[in-house]
Amino acid sequence: MPQPAHIAVDLGAESGRVIVGTVVDGKLSMHEAHRFRHLPVPTPQGLCWDFTGLWRQILDGLAQAAQHIQATGAQAVSVGVDTWGVDWTLVSPESTLLGTPRCYRDPAFTQAFERVTGKVPPREIYEATGIGLMALNTLYQYESRAAAEPTALAAGGRVLFMPDLFHWMLSGVATVERTIASTSQMLDVRTGDWNRALLERLGLPTAPLTTPVDAGTAVGTLLPAVARETGLPESVQVVLPPSHDTASAIAAVPADAETDWCYLSSGTWSLLGAELDTPCITDAAAHANFTNELGVSGTVRFLKNIAGLWLVQEVRRQLDRDGQSMDYPELTRLAAEAQPFRTLIPVNDPDFARPGGMPGRIQDYARQTGQPVPETPGCLVRCCLESLALEYRNALGDLERVLGKRFGVLHLVGGGGKNALLNGMTASAIGRRVVVGPDEGTAMGNLLTQAMGTGHLSDLDELRGVVRASIDLQTVEPSDTDAWEPQAARYAGLPPVQPQG
């Protein structure tokens, strides 16, 4: 009988991949069929995602996946999509897309954030949703569109998040998966359904919101046109993975039930937290701005959002624009050679969340705070990495204080795990053992949850057992912890960015 093959479409905020996975003898084998880069684009509507370009890349990747599956004699049984969180669009009852999906980095959402928090106190929003307040959250995007285009939300359309949009384009079935919905700050994580009372209090329509469904649900099969375009059989099921990429990554954390562990998902964003059985919505959690997002099999991802490798990505993009093209390994090598602890920045300051001109903004902050100005690529990247490691230390301290427990090991998953320099900095900054891997955690969680949904795996424990059997984990022990102590105090005292001009 042919080996069942699952296909993960894994879309990050900078790149996308299409990966084929098969489970043989309790181990997951993966083949990358297609990889591509993508970025949001400025439009008259604002900063938007090139969703038609993404769809073209997905179709091309599925075609290459189909060729690989046929060549290996396997049988394609399912496909599922994961993406970054919070971004969404509307689809009409007539299957018409009602607008281009906006990018969460659009600065216009800050005004909506101020309007919403002016109507409902932030602590009450947190109590209603369990989600930390950030202007990029769907709630403020939704209010922004309601204010600008009230008729659009009254036209009978359905809200679909980015992975839901592509599941709809694959199957023709419009559904909302629960882990991606939980990023919105519109869901009550205690019930797993929309907090309609909060939305009505804000004067926002609830008709476009349909009840979310769980990861692992099969929603339909491929549309005939998609099957013809890709060469996949129409019988391939569209199975919802944990559609938020972080939820997929955390599903693939190779921990066992006996270990007292926390996690760091490292990519464009960094997310540090713990897996809980129930939400933690306390004053301490609210004060520390922790988020309760939903995971596989009813778990809760209690975490804090951190700027992540976005900082290094933006440095690289600006260097490329300035004629200094370098890949990430080269930038990391130069950072390793640079002087330690020369310049630090508050990585979560909103000024560093804006796209464009990152080296200049880091340099301006160094001048503002009387620190040495990082002029070289190595100094710029080292500044970002050391500052990230110190922010991880702060977040771990907050996590342990809020939950009242100490975690002995940090599981680091995601593409950021390929940066050995940052891994070592992280272990030393937090003074804990760091277990690195898998760096393809998002794709693994996506593929293996599909396997659960098609009956090829039984539960989350078995899923994580497959991950442990499939990869070689790297353990990083802390070193030079004494050198990080004064830097932690220095980092804690950094002032916010002062507006220029």
How does this model look, in words?
The protein has 501 residues and is an alpha+beta fold. It folds into two domains: 4-239, 2-Layer Sandwich (Nucleotidyltransferase, domain 5); 253-437 and 471-501, ATPase, nucleotide binding domain (Nucleotidyltransferase, domain 5, 2-Layer Sandwich). It has 19 helices and 19 strands. It has helices at 51-72, 109-119, 122-129, 138-148, 150-153, 162-171, 178-181, 196-201, 224-230, 245-251, 283-287, 310-321, 328-337, 358-368, 377-403, 420-430, 441-453, 460-470, 481-492; strands at residues 4-11, 15-24, 27-37, 41-43, 46-48, 75-82, 88-91, 158-161, 187-188, 193-194, 218-221, 237-239, 261-266, 270-276, 291-294, 300-306, 409-413, 433-436, 474-476. A seven-stranded mixed sheet has the order 15-16-14-13-17-18-19, with helices on both faces. A hairpin with a 4-residue loop joins strand 9 (187-188) and strand 10 (193-194). Helix 15 (377-403) packs across helix 19. The longest helix has 27 residues, at 377-403. The N and C termini lie far apart (69 Å). The mean pLDDT is 96.
